[in-house]
Each structure stands twice: as C-alpha cells, then as structure tokens.
Amino acid sequence: MALSDNPYPVQFSVDSPEESRDRMSVFLRFILAIPIVILFAAVSGESAGIRSFGGAAGGTLMAGPLLMILFRQKYPKWWFDWNFALSKFTNRVAVYLFMLRDEYPSTDEEQAVHLELPYPDVEQDLSKWLPLIKWFLAIPHYIILAVLWVLVVFAVIISWLSILITGNHPSGLFNFVVGVMRWTNRVGAYAFVLVTDVYPPFRLDP
Q1: Are 32 and 104 in contact (CB under 8 A)?
Q2: 3-class SS at 73?
Q3: Residue 83 and residue 79: Cα distance in Å, rounded?
Q4: CB 201 within 8 A of CB 11
Q5: N or C: the chain end with fewer CB closer than 10 Å?
Q6: CB 185 within 8 Å of CB 83
Q7: pLDDT per residue over 71-88, tens digit each?
C-alpha cells in the first residue's frame, strides 16, 4: 500500500463566492434543483440515494477497470473519461445542493468546481492486485466520513439560514463542507475509480 504524500494525486476545490448570495435561489434551492437531480439520477445509476458502482448503463464504472487492470494492466481511456466526467458532474450538483454556489449545475462545463483525477499509467502507477482489496483498505475512511457527512447536514442547514438572514455563507462552514467533499473524492478515486494506489490522507485540507 503506497503512502500518501503532499500534494495528493486527487485534488478538489470550489471557488468561494465573491458577491452576496442570491437569497431567493437559496431559499428555493431544493425545488430549483429537482430537474438537475432527476437528470443526475438518470445518468449516474442512483436509486434511492444509493450509488450503483460498476453499473453498465450508468454510475461509476468499477468492475470493468478492475478486471482490465488485473488481467491486462490497462485502464481504457474512455472508461476513465466517463468516470471523470461523472465525478465532476456529481460534484457540481452537490455544490449546488449544499448552498456553496448559486450557479445552476452545468452538465459539461467546469464552472467554479474543480476536480483533478490522474489518468494512470497502469504498468507504472498501479499495482496489479491492489484493486481487489482497496475497498477493504478504505474502511477506516468510511467510518470517519459517515460521521463527517452527518455534520455536513447540520452545516448546510446552518449555512442556509445564515445566507437567508445575512446574505453571506460562513467561511468556516464553506471550507468544512468543501473539505469533506475533497476527502470523499479522494477515497472514491482510490477505492472505486481506481486511478491511484496512493492511500488517501486523513484530512480535509488540500
């Protein structure tokens, strides 16, 4: 298992809004988000909020890349491109739902949400057998992230009220939610998207 180092191969950030927030958009956020959430569910393989990893028609492709890494030491570029594009779209939708930005999520443009995933040179960068157990090695992260995502729910509610009252998003809560998303993206890239063997760091910071 490779040890994490700084900078980590997977990077995530969200540009902090420079202007006062759109209070009406924030107030109606969960209603306004319905169309993009439906579209997201259609392309991501989501069902009742549970992600379908390895889905053939939608969702993150895991089983195919795992088998290709294991038996052919290849990661087809178009499979990577699909996973990368879906991950970026997922984050844009999440950023909108979590009140971090007011721009309506684009299906293809980066907007203010930045995710970097390395396309691996499988023979040089990835172990042939490690993908079989990455999901297991990441269990400590799942436990911590479960607690952090509960805190995110409270952070989003407090942020929602703060924006409605003051027009601004508390910077501490903004950075906390972005940090949890960053941590989650790194664990997903390691354990499910399989683009790096570097074990994710236990931190919210870049």
Answers
A1: yes
A2: coil
A3: 6
A4: no
A5: N
A6: no
A7: 999 999 999 999 999 999
Q: How far apart are CA 69 and CA 58, in angstroms?
A: 20
Provide the whole-model pTM. Answer: 0.90
Which are the contacts of 189, defined by CB distance < 8 A and separation ≥ 6? 9, 10, 87, 117, 195, 196, 200
- Ranges of each domain in the chain: 11-191
What pLDDT, in 10s, does the model give residues 180-202? Answer: 999 999 999 999 999 999 999 99
Query: Following DSSP, what letter does each residue of 122-135 receive, concatenated?
Result: HHHHS-SSGGGTHH
The alpha carbon torsion through 74, 88, 177, 194 (nearest 10 deg) reads: -10
List the one residue out of 115, 129, 132 whose CA is nearest residue 189.
115
How many CB atoms lie under 10 A from the CB of residue 86? 19
Residue in this structure with the two tokens 């109606």, named with its chain if needed: 28
Single-letter residue type at 106: S
Question: Could you tell me how many helices (H) and strands (E) the chain has, helices first?
Answer: 9, 2
Q: Give the containing element (helix H, strand E) for 13.
A: strand 11-14
- CB 137 within 8 Å of CB 1: yes
